[in-house]
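Quick one:
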Amino acid sequence: MSETPTRTHVRLALHADHPPAVTATLTGPASADARLLLTARGFRDSNEQTLVLARIDREEPYYAQQAANTLADRFDIEIAPDLRETIDTDRAWADYPMPDATREELRMHGATAQAIHDDIAAARLTIHLHALDGHITAAVGSYTDGRHVHLRGQDHLRDFARVFTDETKAVAEFHRLYSDAVRPGPAHLTSTERAIADLASPATQETQPSAPTENARQPVLTASTARTSSPEEHEALLESFLEANRDWEKVRTWSDETTIANHESLTLRAEFDHDARHRGDVAWTFAAYENPVGERLWHATASPTTPTELVRALLDSLAGADPWSPHTLGSASRPADTTAALLEAGWARHDSTVVWQAPDANASFAFSPYAAEHPHSALPAWTAYGGTDPNHPAWAIHLSPAAPPDVLGALAFELAANAAPPEPRPSRSAQAARPATPASTQRRPASRP
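Output:
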């Protein structure tokens, strides 16, 4: 009888039909973790066992090696001979009009083009207009974070030309520069962009779900159908939390707008804004600090419309922690563990964007590979939100990349229990047990340090 493999095997190889694209084939018990870590490195699902890395800068061998280095401590990594030879050769597959540039400089330029390509594909960057300036394509677009940019070039040569804070000025300047050459929307996809889009699309005729019948058609859900809580319910939650946790002190600031709940260790804090009313406001801010005067280790925020059960899960996770011992910080190394309760409750995972969605599509839990890879970017690595539009959610919770596993696990459990139908609730065997109430479990020191 063959033995059950104890480690997951990851085989990296050049794509048979489209080099230098790279494929990753997964076998073993922890394939879900490996899949998510590869997704964070730019790989996309091809089928149940295979992912593909296809980049606009054609630097797939280099980034495949970086992915292998990251995964090597947890998984068995095999690099096929053809890919190994390509990595060792380290030649530029794309042509750059920069004869004096070093290999590293070319790679950095390509990384910028790749980031722009990814932002457009993920709808973080919307292109309003384009123009042909000689043989160079120019474009103007807007980021969801409020930046407005002029772009020059295509594929691996695309780069930022200018950045604006006002969309009207950006568009007006684009018209001034390119006049009659301006055309609406983005330019047509290049052959490289089309090839990458085809490689990154796992859909085939065999794997596509059949069209629903008339009787099985689902209603179109909007953010307004997601369940929310009122500001008054959040006020009551704050008072009940402080009443139940005597080692937390209520601190009122110089204004009556904000209440701060501080743990007696002065390393855990929950801040509540009484004036937050709109779903886009921040009502709650949670944070843990290295020591009373140390740096912030991780933080989370919640909107005033967030269901109180989810906010209570965050509060209970803070209260259930042991503030007198070193804090356990999270990372992107085991995202599958965090979301096990969601999968058991029937949530669907969308691999291209790393989002888990409730069966009724009224709540989602999103993981940002970019934020996880760039913890100093100030972007949230995890976002839970209500409704179907992540840009205009009915409610939202954001957590930084270092959010502890028990906090993420408690939030995922409550998401599964409250967003899914009442029965069946996810079993607690799907994740590490949720932190119990501090009155019964919190370890207290013999004396304060």
